[in-house]
Amino acid sequence: MSKSISKTIFELFLTFFKIGAFTFGGGWVMIAMMEKDIVDKHKWFTKEEFIDNLAIAQSMPGILAVNMAVLVGNKIAKKWGAFYSALGTILPSFIVILTIAIFFVTINDNPVVERVFKGIRPAVVALIIAPVFTTAKSAKINIKNFWVPLSTALLITFCGFSPIAFIALAIVYGIARCYFSNRETKTE
Q: Other C-beta atoms within 10 Å of 4: how many?
């Protein structure tokens, strides 16, 4: 393995380790930090590529952050990039969970720990909401089309519709739109 590839893989690992270590609340909380590092800092993806890969990562089974790490790592350094990016994302959580499991018996009923978790909850909600706005902006959601994600979210949340059904509908719509768009281009 050449020195530049080793350096790139190490950079991928460190980037995703940092993302995994300093974001709490799951994959959606990590999105803002990922976008900053992947798009703005390292320029591994354009904003459009980031949004497209985010959609792919979300529709794949598994953890959003790990799926995204695999996609980025694979693009930058193929299988070893994917492996070390995923490892970087997973390792901080593993270390924290292992540490908590070891010491949980002694901190289980600690009032300070309970207050810390109560304080973290509202911050996590804000961290989940923030990427929604940046993703909507990047996906070109505006006053004319905001009803699509809004109605989808409402139908999933309150009516029990499956997110998989909406993903399938979006795929069919995208294929149909591309097909008819290509037909119009050929007839001109």
A: 9
